[in-house]
Every structure is written in structure tokens, then in C-alpha cells.
Design a protein that fits this description.
The complex is a heterodimer of chains A (259) and B (313). Chain A has 11 helices and no strands. Chain A is mainly α. Chain A has one domain. The longest helix of chain A has 35 residues. Chain B has 2 domains: 214 residues, P-loop containing nucleotide triphosphate hydrolases (Rossmann fold), CATH 3.40.50; 61 residues, Alpha-Beta Plaits, CATH 3.30.70. The termini of chain B are far apart. The chains are: A mainly alpha (259), B alpha/beta (313). Chain A: It comes from Actinomadura violacea.
Chain lengths: 259, 313
Amino acid sequence: MLDAVAAEWWKLRSVRSTHVIVSVAAAFVLFVVLLAVQEAHIWDGLDAARRARFLLRPLQELGGWVAQLCLAVLGVLAATSEYRTGMVRTSLVAVSSRTRFLAAKAVVVGLTGLVVGEAVSIGCLLGTRLAVGGRPFPDQRASIAHDLPGFVASGAAVAVFALLGLALGVLLRSAAAAIVTLVLVWHVVPLLVYHLPGPWNERLGSVMLSGLPAQIAGLGADHSIYGELLPPAAAAAVLLAYAAVPLALASVALTHRDA
Amino acid sequence: MCRAGSGGSVDDVIEVRELTKRYGRTVAVDGLSFQVRPGTVTGFLGPNGAGKSTTMRVLLGLDAPSSGEALVNGGPYTALRRPLHEVGALLDAGAVHGGRRAFDHLGWLARSNGIGTKRVVEVLEQVGLAGVARKRVGGFSLGMRQRLGIAAALLGDPGVLMFDEPVNGLDPDGVRWIRGLMRALAAEGRTVLVSSHLMSEMELTADRLVVIGQGRLIADTSVRELTDRFARGVLVRSPRPEELVGVLAAAGGTVEAAPGGALSVAGLDVAEIGDRAAAHGIPLYEVTPRSASLEEAYMQLTAGSTEFGAVAS
């Protein structure tokens, strides 16, 4: 198993798309911090009444949100680049157990997603706090330790997105189809669910993937499109299921299909 | 070096038994059985669409057989723990990620089977790609990709090698190189199964031939047997044919009239015919051994089994 994991890691780090995707996610941290600097300037020019309503929060969360999409695409490409070129046959000749092959890919893609996700998510929190300095934005008065769990959960969601992308890539074997499906899960379906009649908008909105980190951290939906019905443990379980169920389906498909 | 399979009998390193593979309603391989023995280059021949690649994919555990079995070293391929140490395969040289460097492509393959990077450098040198090891595969010519695929097959120093149409896209030098390589691998006691749709190629490389058409076995034979089977006697011309017929018939030959006043002689070789004619003072204008070329033999064997043949008008 270790050999297979090491081989998958070698594969992932030896293509340009991986470097591009991780660079885009990292560049977004920089972008978010620059925007925070700009907001700090705006803050300085506001009167007390308007300062009380001036929030930093949606901006802080953008990094993790974009990283979700970037790493999901990385997960997709980890599978579909092999199907597109036919290299998957070489892979399966070298690692003849399909389950081991998929598990090794999942370990590498999941860990990459986790590391990049946490770095981006926590980087955005710390970077924006640094940028606004001591300015008491109404949503930035809590300590970093208090805000951290939400951002850690958001970083973990990036790993889940990466694994979901990998599973979709194996199931659909086409980058275009898998990425379209991902964008649906990432943004389009939550928007549609938001417009459902109540109480279904709230119920379904609570199990939308991007809305789970806030519930895991025990935060409210904060007037977002997501629901807030799940207790932290349930939200964590749903988050894991978003990776585990598609991966299980992918494993079944992979073991029963001719390569 | 003498190699034998780690399991099963030493005689049959590759064994295909009553193998059938269907894709939907298309039957790609139909009750195919054959064995491949070590220390030989076995040519796996058939027209396009005959089922050669399918058989190789089933042997490598990529496709599941509809019925029957395909065994390597006495067991199914998927049972091998570190398969590259036992079996090396070149299926499709184009099946590489163009953005990856040659060294990295072989690197991850080696790593997956616990093979060190020292061996990667070795095989790159062996196939003549050491100079472009750090170049991206996307810029490689088809011939270079074939060499890279062969390097991948050699990585684990395996006792069994399978090459699917390895000379496609190679220049004459490359074709000669791979011929020599296959002969050398077999001489080391390894088992080499090489598919081709060109008999002329196999004539120079293979010891044995497995010929299939439309998924069925047509011939499982040695190159020599096939040549002999299609031998058509010796063509003889003489200004005194009647006398010659008598002489040759007395010597045990079977003589028939051939077009253009020539004689077709079976049962005697060129030297015997010459000696007899000389002994009787009969002049000979032509003595030509006639054997169908392997190419012709192959065309006759596979006639009627080409899937994509043109319809004669």
C-alpha cells in the first residue's frame, strides 16, 4: 500500500496542472489579504455608525471557498488525466488491485486537499486579521482561537471536495462531466435549494456541502444561502459522507469495469 | 540466466484456456486456447480486430474474461503482489501523460513496485532515452514513446514480457533494435509474447507463432512448420521434359506439369534434382524451390477471417 501511495504522490507532483491549481489557491490568499488592506482603508474613512455595520467576514471565507473548487478540480484530474491518455491501464498493470489503486489515490488527493485547504483557510483568517490590524470590525472582535474552528472545518471541507472530485472523475471518466457536476454541488444546487419553499429550503440547505463547516464549528448560517439545522457532530458526519459515499461507489465501479 | 515461472509448470508461462470475451454483443475472443513457453519469442498474429489486444488485456487483468481463463506464471495476473517483477508489458505507447517527464513517468511506475530510481536510469540508458530523461513526454515522437513503453516493461527485470505491436512507428533502426532486444530477452530464458499484424515482421523475430482470426485460434505452430506446410515443391525447366519426368519419378519425386511448359516437382530437393538430371545428361534451364512466403501463408490462413476486409466488387 505504501508503494502505491508513494507512486500516486510521484504522479501528482510531476504534472504541471497540480502546481497551477495549488498556485491559484495560494494566490487567492494573497488576493484576499490585499482586499482586506483595502477594506481597512475604507474603515478608516467611515463614521462610527457605519463602522458598526461594516463586516469583514464574507471576504475572509472566500479563500476556503475558492480552494474547495480548485482542489476538487485537482481530484478530478488525478483520475480523468489517466482515462484521457489511457495511462490508467499502465497504472492498473503496475498496481493490479483496483481497491488499492483507488485507496492510494484517495490518500494522496485527500492529504493534499487537507494541507492546501487548511493553509488557505487559516492563511486567510490570519492574513486578514493582520491586514486590519487593531481595527475593531464588528465581526472580528472575537479571539483568533474562537474563530479558528470554523476555518479549520472549512479547510477540512477542501479535502472532502478533493475526494469528491476524485470519485466523480473515476465514475464519469471525463473531466468535463466531473467538473460540471462539481460546480453544481459547489454552488448551483445550494442556490436552487435556497429558493425552494420552506421548510425544505432550510432542511436541504443544511446538508449542502459548503454550508457544513459553519455548522461543524457551531456557527449560524449567518444570513447565507445555507441552512443551520444540524448539530456539529451530525454536520461532521454528513461532511465525511460527501467523500465516503462517492468513493465507495467509485470503488465498486472501478472493480467491476474493464479498464 | 535461466528463469522459470514462480508457480505452475515451467513449460507454460502464459496459458490461455478456452478464453471468451464479449463486449455487449460483439465477441472479441471466442474460445481461444494457447500456451507460451519460456525462452522463446512467440509471435501473436492476426488481422486488425482479431482479438490480440483483448487477449493481452485479459492476460494483464485489465479486462475480465466472459468465460475461460488467462494465466500468467500459473495464476491470474491480479494475484501478483508486485507484478512488474514478473511481467513487463507494453500495450499502448501513446498512453502516457504528455506533461510528465520521461524520468518521472518511469519513476512512479518503479516506485509502485518498490523498484529504485537507479533501475530507472538503467532502463533509460538501455532504450537510448537517457539524453531526454528530463524532457516532457508530450514532445516525444511515436518511436521515442515506444522506447519509453519498452523501458517501462523492462523496469522490474521480469521473466515474462508482452509487447502489443511494438514496432509501430519505429524507424528502420528502431525496428532492428527491438528485434535484437526481443531475441536477446528470449535468449536469457525469458518468455516473450509479441503481437503484430505483419507476418513479415514475425518471420525475422519469432520462434513460434500463434495465429488468430475473429477471436479464434487459426494456427499454433513454429515458423519452420508453417513454412514447410506451405512448401510447394521445386519448379524445373528443361528442353527435354519427358525424359526428366521419367528420371525424377524413378528417383521418388512426384512430378506435375506447371504452366508455361515447366514441371513442378515434389519430394525431391534442388540438389537431388540437379544431380539426377546431370547423371542422365539432361540440361536444366531453371531449378527454383517454391515455397509460399510466410506472408502468403498468413494471408491464406487468415483469409475469410478479416473483420474489416474490403468487399471485392
